[in-house]
Amino acid sequence: MGQEILCQVQLMKGVHIPIVVDLTFERAELACQMAGLDMTAYARAESPETAEAVIDSGKVALATDWNVVPQLRRVQAIVDATGSPELGVSIALAAISAKKHIVMMNVECDVTVGPMLNRLAREAGVIYTLAAGDEPAAILELYRFAAALGFQIVAVGKGKNNPLDITATPETLASKARARAMSARMLCEFVDGSKTAVEMCSVANATGLVPDIRGMHGAKATRDTLHQVFCPKSQGGVLGRAGVVDFAIGVHPGVFVVFTTDQARLKQGLIQRDMGHGPNYLLFRPYHLCSIEVPLTAAQAVVYRESSGHPLPSPVAECIAIAKRSLKAGETLDAIGEHCYRGSIDTVEIARGERLLPLGLAKGCILTRDVAQGEPIRYTDFAELPDTPLVRMRRQQDDLCQR
Description:
Layout: H1 2-9, E1 19-21, H2 25-34, E2 42-44, H3 48-56, E3 60-63, E4 77-80, H4 85-97, E5 101-104, H5 107-124, E6 128-130, H6 135-148, E7 152-159, H7 174-179, H8 184-191, H9 194-207, E8 210-211, E9 219-220, H10 226-229, E10 244-249, E11 255-260, H11 264-272, E12 280-285, H12 294-304, E13 317-323, E14 341-347, H13 348-353, H14 389-401
Parallel strand pairs: 1-3, 2-3, 4-5, 5-6, 7-10, 8-10, 9-10
Antiparallel strand pairs: 7-11, 11-12, 13-14
């Protein structure tokens, strides 16, 4: 993700990346080489002072400590592409404290404490924003268009990009991950459905739309039948209600919005514009370029002080943890995309009522009772949450949203 952002910015006017952070200097240097930067155009930096000196000399600073970035005076926006909820909250808090805009490619963090981070950013006078190119922001682009025109939103969603296997593990996907030059854990997060649940939960909490059922329908559809499938059952679709988030099997890449209207003259206009005869109509974006689009969000935040999407003050959906296999008392839960659990989605009301554990808080929890395969993990399945900045912020968010 970071490599693509760095490469794309070299083609753009008015946007500059002063510092790149990665796990090792070698990886950061490889990104610079991919971006076509001469070896004299970047240099390693071990501290904020050396980073400032490198940047002042006209070079790109390379670092392995993210804490350097918020301290740099020339940085206006920070992109978090770690995918770690635990790390994401620390990065976002440091960015906000330093009055830097935060571009949240870390959707796992957003669905855990996004409303609280957005609140803190607003209070500090900076922008907290989802990232253009990620499917949540691509969906929100269509949603904002339809909602601004006053159409009734029936459903919003995305096509599932990878075959769904809810029992997938990094080991079963190792060969495919190597072929795609990506982390097996990250690929597993996509394949086992966790990433889809995370992304659609982010959309739900930015729009107020909710999942129709736990896990969503994930119905099969084609580009031409999306608006006939993701509509109420009374109209031949799969939905028990309108105003939902969901995902489609068989349509990728792409994101969609299904909308309707009761206005007779507008219906005639939609027919004349080849949108069909209704009662539901489709907006479809047949691409999302992921990190390639992200620089646009950074520029939008800095220049226009607008977001590509952000959570509402109170969430309406929760991304929950479902046991991927039978879990035993005494086990310590691993990370998203590994062996113990996968992500799913439900409404906040149900999640609170059943004491369901948010996906982003699961890592490191030690079970005090067995959890059967396919069952949701609950707060009552362990003694206490680890004492981390992420957990503390989630408690603050819960307190504010339940008042």
